[in-house]
Design goal:
By secondary structure, the protein is of the alpha/beta class. It contains 23 helices and 8 strands.
Length: 491
Amino acid sequence: MLDSLKDNLRLALKKIVGASDINEELINELCKDLQRALLAADVNVRLVLEITKNLKERSLTETPPKGLSKKDHIITILYGELSKLLGYSGEAIKTIDRKKTDENLINFNSDKKNTILMISKLLGYSGEAIKTIDRKKTDENLINFNSDKKNTILMLGIQGSGKTTVIAKLARWLSKHGYRIGVIGADTWRPGALTQLKMNCSKINAQVYGEEGNKDALEIVKNGMGFFNDQPVDIIIIDTAGRHKEEQGLLEEMRTMYSIVTPDQVFLVIDGTIGQQAYNQAKIFHENAKISGIIITKLDGTAKGGGAIAASSATGAKVLFIGTGERIDDLEQFSPTSFVGRLLGMGDIKALLEMAHNLEIQSDENQAKRLMSGKMTIEDFYAQMENMGKMGFRNVIENLPGLSNFVKDDHLDVLQQKMEKWRFIIQSFTNDEKKNPDIINEARRKRIARGSGVMEHDVKDLIKQYNNSKTMMKQAKGRQMQGLLRRFGLG
């Protein structure tokens, strides 16, 4: 996601980190690199000049806090200014305290060990312990719902922005947070809109109200609200026709619908590929319907996503979610500070925790104890690969502090290919071989290779990496990450 922006920002940071002396010339060079990176991501020129002006002034005039080097202070300033650009409005960021950032965000069952901790250790993560987080606090700050009544969300967007797909993703996200969802299909302009909505929502068991053949969107919404009034739902999401900021008829319909429904929330869906044009879109909609939140889609396939987020934030409407893929679960709660942390290679543990929770990835306590003690079985090893496959191997690497900035993309591809082979190989093991891989001799190795469609040396490679990982889990300290990657042939 936003690979070009991410790579350009990290190249700019390397100059600071590798410099022997911090002076005005170096800071000017950093500002120029930052300008090029942001402009390439289609961020508005005015915003780019503003952020680089602040970066330069603060870098030259501010005294680093006690215990923080000049280099670290400049990186912190960059982190803070980028976060503000993308919508952060909290207190001034004086230090990048990942511990504070990662606490109190997601609440996991305390009786189960979080599989992210095990995957992190398996990959060599040696940072501070990953804490439990309070998901409820985050949700309350994200969207304010009234628990005493049925809440209504009015969904708006330009045609082609991915609004109908996002509705199913949002319904999924809300369902996983304990809400019962009903959906009203009031897009009477696009052929097949109601069919698509019903198909998407059927995957998550969300009930959809719609009237085939009725072209009166306002009547459909009135009837739908009446229908769900007697249904056991907490939140009603209303899909509307995609419209253009110049289509006065549709804008008038939107205003009328807003006055009839008086929604608790109005979400605007914006296509991330339009870049800084998002500003005009968000501004027009905000003026007509008091937008309470923005959802930006298609960030996984565009270089202009940074510009879209920055432009949306500039309107004053908060970016709540970003779409990061095609799957129904690929809707991510947006946090400016966490997003910038990933762009700069600092990782984002809480995003991994959120992903694991959404995918209901949990491991039992006995497996956790075996893994952490270095007594991991090949079945434990396989279980972790399955979990990583669900989340996406690249996602796991990119969100682990330390690993996210260390592993190159081509190395990731090599490791991804190896992991996929290993999964098939382990599936070809007998139960006895899974419990004790040491019994695998040449004859067994040939059988496993034929059964999994790989070469014999691939089976040898797996067993070697499994034994290396067991050793790594015992050590799991300090610089073992680099040693592990070297053993994978990537260091």
